[in-house]
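>> received
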Amino acid sequence: MVPLTIFDRATFDLFVPTVRAYSMPAPSNELVKESLARALAVYPHMAGRLVVDDQGRRFIHVNNRGALVIEVTVPADLADVLVDGTISNVGEVYPPLPEENVGAPVFQVQLNRYRCGGLVMGTIYQHHVADGTAMSSFVRMWARAAREGKDFIVPVPAPHVHDRASTAIPRGTPTPVFDHQNIEFKGVNEDGISNKSHAVVPMEKIRNFKVHFTPEFIAELKSCVGGRCSTFQCLLAHVWKKLTAARGFHREDFTKVRVAVNCRDRANPPVSADFFGNMVLWAFPRLQVREVLNSTYRRVVDVIREAVSRIDRDYIQSFVDFGAVADMRGKKLEATAPVAGTMLCPDMEIDSWMGFVRFHDMDLGTGPPCAFLPPDMPVEGLMVLMPSGTDKGGADLFIALAEDHVDAFQQICLSLDLMN
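>> returned
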């Protein structure tokens, strides 16, 4: 019985889908299942279940119950349904999202086998068990097990890989110095910017789509920014500008971005990059609409950088201490992470997968996927940025937007602001 850490409890309480398509020759269902079993031996948390004790506390029950695999036969050719890297019914090719997270298999797979022999593999996993960095390690192990087959030797993970408790050690006298009750968790009283509630709407009002940024576009954007700038930082500045313009707010309104920050190498002492669990906090760059629209790219990038830099060793230790104090007082914590159907507008949230093992390069022995499909993200304003699977040096932005703002955003999202 593994207690959730304060990092686990602060993240999304939902299942995260990913979808990959494999054209012929595609891996067989048996190969996928056998290699998954081998990977689960290395990452046993993924074969467990979330449980709740009589005090309402969540645990990961590492009980070897296994991952759920659903096998589906589709009476169509993959080429007939995979058009321009997308499938119209993408929500049907991964397992149905559980109505209750507690007790459900924390990792589930749906193998959709097409008439031509092609395969679309949809997976979902419970975010309280792992973050994107951790899932990157799991996917890499799964692919390795598939490629090596019977020659695969299950490695014994180093003790730190599954040692969640070591990532959340409070000081002798826990002393939180930042307002985590109104940032990562909901406070009793409204605090204004960080604890603002957002509307929840029916899912049909949220539209998912992908935007592709070519290497040439990214290079030109970086030249507009000037100086050193990561691809993630410059694209976030650009998207923040374009999405703010498309939404059409009053110029004196405020807009902020919830930016996921990997804390592994920011903690003191640093946590190994291959730690399996959650260790993400969030930065909140915030500007008035007029500032976002009228500022140079460099100015917006600097605001993003400054916000991210605040997630340092002191902030992380304060967060851990806050969790310890809350537990000592028996305080029930409710994360500010949005739930399904949330409209973040006028705000937004972005996760970067730019530094992960390339999810679309999951070679199970017959070659990498022919497509990595954007899943239906359940939160308006939520975005994921990842390297392009087809255009080396390019990037793909998966984004969920309110239907009313999609056309306006798509018309301007590939135009640069050429200002000094």
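>> The chain has a mean pLDDT of 91.
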